[in-house]
Amino acid sequence: MATMYDKLGDLLNETLEAGAVKFIRIEKEEPQPEPEKQEEKPPKEQKKDKRVIYKKLNPELEREYRLLDITVSATVDDVKKAYKEKLKYFHPDRYADNAVLEKVATNKTREIVKAYNDILEFLQA
Asked: Is 47 helix (H, G, I), strand (E, B) or coil?
């Protein structure tokens, strides 16, 4: 006899396997609070705890990751590097001699900047 929890578990597994709900794993380092300092001992390096956060990845954010040509496992440094490369390629000043290409590059640059800001906000929140 299948219980309600079994059915819910099956439904959740089907949903995750189908990719309807996507999550991203983010590892964050947080400094530990320092114990009371003792004057006799030299100060030690501050230890950091790693914690893992799972955040829901929506379709808009997926599109922005694809726009920057990075994977969802990219670090903040990877995001910054991809952002700079894309801006260098699509910067409107490169196409100043052609008005149509300049307009396209301007729109693309706006999309890249928005994607960069959204991804950074997602990773740091």
From this structure: coil
Contacts of 29 (CB under 8 A, 6+ apart): 48, 49, 50
Residue 95, exposed/middle/buried by CB under 10 A (0-12, 13-18, 19+)? middle
CA 88 to CA 114: how far, in whole Å?
A: 16
Please give the share of the chain, as a percent, with pLDDT higher than 90.
44
CA nearest to 82, candidates 115, 110, 59: 115
Q: Which residue has the tokens 């801006």?
A: 87
Angle at 124 between CA 122 and CA 125, to 5 degrees: 70
For residue 44, pLDDT beyond 60: no
d(CA 84, CA 69): 12
Q: Return the bridge partners of 50, or none.
A: 29
